[in-house]
């Protein structure tokens, strides 16, 4: 019979990538929506409204990338000499 092997969450790369993709998509959508809301309230020109949405999307992607890279490197720290 085959034994079921449990992989700890620290070494399960599929679970990590799923969590990171979920975090990235959520932050992208939420910050784009926030940028769109701010654009509707603050700006009149279509160009500045799109720029506000793009800025929000960039902030969301950047913050997701920063947190994911920090969490991904957490388990792979090298010993200091």
TrEMBL record:
Localization, UniProt: Mitochondrion inner membrane
Transmembrane among keywords: yes
A GO CC annotation given for this chain: mitochondrion
Keywords: Membrane, Mitochondrion, Mitochondrion inner membrane, Transmembrane, Transmembrane helix
InterPro entries noted in UniProt: Mic10
Signal peptide: none
Family according to the record: Belongs to the MICOS complex subunit Mic10 family.
Purpose: Component of the MICOS complex, a large protein complex of the mitochondrial inner membrane that plays crucial roles in the maintenance of crista junctions, inner membrane architecture, and formation of contact sites to the outer membrane.
Protein name: MICOS complex subunit MIC10
Organism name: Lactuca sativa
